[in-house]
Specification:
This protein is α+β, with helices and mostly antiparallel strands. It folds into two domains: 115 residues, no CATH class; 50 residues. 37% of the residues lie in helices and 16% in strands. It contains five helices and six strands; from the N terminus they run E-E-E-H-E-E-E-H-H-H-H. A six-stranded antiparallel β-sheet has the order 1-2-3-6-5-4. A hairpin with a 5-residue loop joins strand 4 and strand 5. The chain is elongated, with a radius of gyration of 21 Å. The relative contact order is 0.12. The model has no long low-confidence stretch (mean pLDDT 93). The protein binds zinc ion (ZN) (2 copies). One zinc ion binds next to loops.
Length: 184
């Protein structure tokens, strides 16, 4: 089995997360998990729920230079699709469009594990996940900008008020009042 990123380099067997059978390249330290190994490992997991991660969460690792490089599936030769993980620094996980095997460049699996995303990597490639992650990124960015403009204290009062109005059955009256108040 050949490394998708280094021509002529063979992958050797290793285990990830304790008991997940995988293959690693000695040249680039990337890891390949075949779909058979992944699905049988997933069956023993207690939960496969994942949630979008906070945008710009600093996960403190250095992405592999290979992350920018495309590759072909070591199992079936098909194209590897990319899914962006919007942490700091952002990186891309790869997955075979044909067989579903998973490629992580050096260090990426450990970050997925740290974020709890390693249990359902296939979800990261769905339009629903991509959309929810973008929504989360916009919301986080908007909150940061609000804190910068208003300061921590007032910004949090605004967030609390927004939450209270959202939960109140007549919350829209409060919103309308605020909008009228600032119309001029
Ligand atoms: Zn390699
Ligand atoms: Zn494949």
């Amino acid at each position: 089995m050949q490394c998708p990123k280094d021509k002529g380099e063979q992958l050797h067997p290793i285990t990830l997360s304790g008991n997940l059978a995988a293959h690693q390249c000695s040249a680039c330290d990337g890891t390949w998990v075949s779909i058979e190994d992944y699905t049988s490992w997933q069956q023993d997991l207690p939960s496969r729920e994942i949630e979008p991660v906070p945008a710009d969460l600093d996960v403190g690792y250095v992405p592999s230079p290979k992350d920018a490089q495309g590759g072909l599936c070591p199992d079936c030769g098909s194209y590897l699709a990319r899914a962006r993980i919007g942490v700091k620094p952002q990186f891309y996980v790869e997955r075979c469009v044909q067989c579903g095997g998973i490629w992580c460049d050096r260090g990426e699996w450990a970050v997925l594990e740290q974020l709890g995303l390693h249990v359902a990597v296939e979800h990261l490639f769905t339009p629903d996940w991509q959309m929810r992650s973008r929504d989360r990124e916009y919301a986080d960015r908007e909150r940061r900008a609000t804190v910068e403009k208003l300061g921590e204290e007032l910004a949090h009062q605004v967030f609390d008020l927004a939450d209270q109005l959202a939960q109140h059955p007549n919350g829209d009256f409060g919103v309308a009042y605020l909008m009228r108040r600032f119309e001029q």
